[in-house]
Amino acid sequence: MKTREFRKDDLKIWVIEDNPGDLILLQEMLIDLDFKSKNIKHFRDLESFEEALTSDAPSILFLDLFVPGSQGIETFQRIKPISSRCPIIILSGLDSMDIALECVKMGAQDYLVKDEMSNEMLDKMIIYAIERFSNTKEIRVSEEKYRILFHSIPLAVIMLDEDHNILEINNAATQMLNVRENIKGCTYSSIFSEPSSKGLALDGLQRSKNVLIKLVNNDEKARYLEQASTSNMTSGGARYLVTLTDRTEIIENEINRERIVHETLDEERNRVSSELHDGLAQYLVVLNLHLDMLKGIDEKVDQGLILCQEAVSTSLKLVRSISYMLSPPDMEKGLIPALKALFLRLQNVNNVNFELVTDDKTLKSDLSFFDEYSVFRMVQEFINNSLKYSECLKISCDITCQDGHLCITLNDDGKGFDIEAVQKGLGLINMKQRAFSAGFELNLQSQIGVGTSLKLYSEKLIPD
């Protein structure tokens, strides 16, 4: 900023001082510095000064902190409101410098030790005080313009310090987050109630990448916010600028679309399963009967018929197995009975050991509140992949209640795989889409040589 020029003839200097000796010395110095005596006003107490303010105002004020009716810091606090209208220089004795410094922290421009006054020092102090005051005033105006702009923009914006504490939050963010109290100073992660959402928000800050975060209000209505963030270093440490965009409508449309897709696929599976069970399977049964009726004609023919019947029986078992996998009849009894039947069925046809564990809460709860069919399919997909690729000896499934949420954890002790290499696989993509549309968080982990685990965590609470 440029140094401001001012005419000494126009400068109004007011002095609040009850010591005649100090006052005369200050006045003489001011006149020696070419300040006009007619513009120098003197007040012995605060009452007369406040009365004069009703009709006029100083360009600069010299203030003695110890005057009749007011002592020390109390004196400055009483006239502090005028510090926004003109610069204030504290007149201090050697024994009151600490109080003078405190006043400077509170808004005074400077302090002057009476016993050390000189013309040169006084002249520079006045010039510097006016300059600092003008600069401060410009900064305040600029900050106010910025604050108005910050709170008026429709985009939700939050500023954080290096510890992720909230420094500023604009009106749009306050409304979006449904905040009814001042959260400045609170940690940013406290906005989100779900542990996974907290972790995702902080991960997005650290990596400066866009993330989609689920926000659950007190009414448990979920909203989806896209978080974008940037960071920069300042003298006070790292600063983060966070913007939030409400993507709830888009995400809900996507969820509905995925749900319709999966419902359509499931209906088609049920139709194919019914056709296999009621159509092809019945034809195979009839074919087997006809083959049995042809026996006894010739010994060689009988041997061929036996081989044909064995092939038909094998085909019949395969058709019934495919039909069962497409549409498990046990799902009519609920998720846990269906999974128990699945594990028992697999236990009898595989060398792999299957283990299903449930807790009392989930056994007694009505899980039809959740999309049980989608959960069953995700468990089934994990098991099929483990049997096909992992070379495991054991597959376990734990169904528990964690903090009121349904949690299903599957593990195999197979050879594991590189999780990054399979992220784009169609099976995992389908599983994630099904979990998303069913309202479950999906977390797949694998370690080579150790095994693979899948965790499904419901967004909704288990109903009481």
Which CATH architecture of the largest domain?
Answer: 3-Layer(aba) Sandwich
* DSSP, total strands: 17
Cα separation of the termini = 67 Å
The count of helical stretches stands at: 14
Structural class: alpha/beta
In brief, what are we looking at here?
The protein has helices at residues 20-32, 46-52, 73-79, 97-106, 119-152, 171-176, 195-207, 248-293, 299-326, 335-349, 360-364, 372-390, 419-422, 426-438, and strands spanning 13-16, 40-43, 60-64, 66-67, 70-71, 88-92, 110-113, 156-160, 166-169, 211-216, 222-234, 237-246, 353-358, 394-402, 405-412, 440-447, 451-461. It is of the alpha/beta class.
Protein model, in words:
This protein is an alpha/beta fold. 47% of the residues lie in helices and 23% in strands. It contains 14 helices and 17 strands. The radius of gyration is 40 Å and the shape is rod-shaped. The protein has helices spanning 20-32, 46-52, 73-79, 97-106, 119-152, 171-176, 195-207, 248-293, 299-326, 335-349, 360-364, 372-390, 419-422, 426-438; strands at 13-16, 40-43, 60-64, 66-67, 70-71, 88-92, 110-113, 156-160, 166-169, 211-216, 222-234, 237-246, 353-358, 394-402, 405-412, 440-447, 451-461. Helix 12 runs antiparallel to helix 14 (426-438). The longest helix has 46 residues, at 248-293. It has four domains: 9-149, Response regulator (Rossmann fold, 3-Layer(aba) Sandwich); 154-246, PAS domain (Beta-Lactamase), CATH 3.30.450; 248-327; 329-464, 2-Layer Sandwich (Heat Shock Protein 90). The strands form four sheets. A five-stranded parallel beta sheet has the order 2-1-3-6-7, sandwiched between helices. The chain has a five-stranded antiparallel beta sheet with strand order 9-8-12-11-10. Strand 14 (394-402) and strand 15 form a beta hairpin.
